[in-house]
């Protein structure tokens, strides 16, 4: 499996995170009742699977079926929510996004433009801790900070903060325009040096503009923003 860092979790946490990353928001008992599901067995969480399954041919759950002519080839009704799953290099971030309701709705809304700053899977995997972990929780609550219902809620809030620190509530986003992300109070802007866009603060390189659709753009980053 490619996502080893996410597979080593205690069984309780495994249930919690199987729910966190389950796009259908099934309950833990629903998951356990499904013999085919690998979600909780052996504490192995197919975190990559939901995102991986949603390839280009399949819109995220809740999105309109993309079988009309308008949706067939980048037509005017294609939303960010439709294209987030297309690029496998950012499918960890896309999975996080899908697991949280309000940002998902935002990307499905034609009236609200967003520049999505999507870190590469490799950037997320090389973080010293998981995006839902906060050292402050560990110092306040100890090693079980993400156990149980409270712990799951805590992890979900942290993950939401991480995701929302990567959503810029405007598109097009002009160079140098300082703006607060959807979540967080620190202003963000970008500048171009030697033909490379860099997100500031943090000097995070924008590798490419992945998709450009009716309600915004997906920019692929080689690093993550500091969400705390
Ligand atoms: C939203 O994005 C679209 C596509 O880039 C653009 O045509 C439109 O002007 C943007 N709307 C606003 C309010 O920025």
TrEMBL record:
<keyword id="KW-0732">Signal</keyword>
<dbReference type="InterPro" id="IPR036378">
    <property type="entry name" value="FAS1_dom_sf"/>
</dbReference>
<feature type="region of interest" description="Disordered">
    <location>
        <begin position="50"/>
        <end position="78"/>
    </location>
</feature>
<feature type="signal peptide">
    <location>
        <begin position="1"/>
        <end position="18"/>
    </location>
</feature>
<feature type="domain" description="FAS1">
    <location>
        <begin position="77"/>
        <end position="225"/>
    </location>
</feature>
<dbReference type="InterPro" id="IPR040200">
    <property type="entry name" value="Mug57-like"/>
</dbReference>
<protein>
    <recommendedName>
        <fullName>FAS1 domain-containing protein</fullName>
    </recommendedName>
</protein>
<dbReference type="InterPro" id="IPR000782">
    <property type="entry name" value="FAS1_domain"/>
</dbReference>
